[in-house]
Design goal:
With 270 residues, the protein is an alpha/beta fold. The chain has 6 helices and 13 strands. The strands form 2 sheets. The chain has a 7-stranded mixed β-sheet.
């Protein structure tokens, strides 16, 4: 059995320290095999925010994998850092690799950096992937022994109902790569909205998507702070959604999935 914790978007600089402490207490209690944080550790990569985020990350259960989000690069009021060295501060605090990889018995995690400091598109907070990153992902998963295949990126693949913001681009190419690699589980954040679903990767493979709410930010989007616990037992996957209610994190829904030759399907929701 493999137990994962998926959290996202703590946004230090706009984080509630009481909620952050409650999460760390619950995370230690759950004792995962791997903790995965899918970006937006800070509000704008200010030094005080990074120090608070670093203390939080250091307190997470190990091993852990952390990637940047669009808020983890300096703002436009710091043009040198924004345009010429956008990830310098993140790397100084959380390691040089922006798309880290993790391998252990029974699991292989590949991550993608979907954050861009600037571009020709109007909204620079949107997620963009380079084709070279998708090619690298193909190669990484191609070298697998049988394992649970997990992909992590900051920007989401699915928009919740009533949500008008853009998903990651280029989505069709990413879906094709996911299908080729037969990815089991995709982790992301960004919208501050929890979304657990099946994604049909081109009609040939079905992956599970875990889009997590913000774990401890005050910038809520219509639901409480939360995170996901993921328990894999070979052909079965249980995803438990936790929400912060009455001063503590409690499970409020469970999703059970079953794997077949064409991927994963939802069995039931409790």
């Amino acid at each position: 059995m493999i137990r994962l914790l998926h959290l996202s978007d703590p946004h230090f600089g706009a984080a509630d320290p009481v909620v952050a402490a409650a999460f760390l207490e619950k995370a230690a209690e759950l004792a995962p095999n791997l903790t995965l944080l899918s970006g937006d550790l800070t509000m704008r990569a200010r030094r005080g925010e990074l120090a608070a985020a670093r203390n939080f990350v250091e307190a997470l259960p190990s091993p852990k994998l952390v990637i940047p989000g669009n808020h983890d690069i300096p703002g436009l009021n710091q043009p040198i850092d924004r345009f010429f060295r956008p990830f310098r501060r993140f790397r100084e605090n959380f390691g040089h690799e922006l798309a880290p990889e993790y391998r252990a018995d029974g699991i292989h995690v590949v991550s993608l950096n979907s954050t861009r400091a600037f571009g020709l598109h109007a909204d620079w907070s949107e997620g963009k992937l380079r084709k070279s990153a998708l090619r690298r992902m193909d190669l990484q998963f191609a070298s697998d022994t049988p394992a649970l295949r997990v992909l992590m990126l900051h920007h989401p693949l699915l928009a919740p109902d009533g949500h008008g913001r853009a998903v990651v681009d280029p989505l069709p190419e990413l879906i094709e790569a996911i299908s080729r690699s037969r990815v089991d589980l995709i982790l992301c954040g960004h919208f501050h909205r929890s979304h657990l679903a099946i994604m049909d990767a081109g009609g040939t493979w079905q992956s599970i998507i875990s889009q997590a709410a913000t774990v401890c930010s005050t910038r809520l989007q219509g639901e409480p702070n939360g995170f996901h616990e993921i328990i894999n037992s070979g052909e079965r996957m249980e995803l438990i959604r936790y929400r912060y209610l009455s001063g503590r994190f409690v499970p409020d829904a469970e999703f059970l999935f079953q794997r077949s030759d064409t991927g994963w399907s939802l069995v039931c929701t409790i």
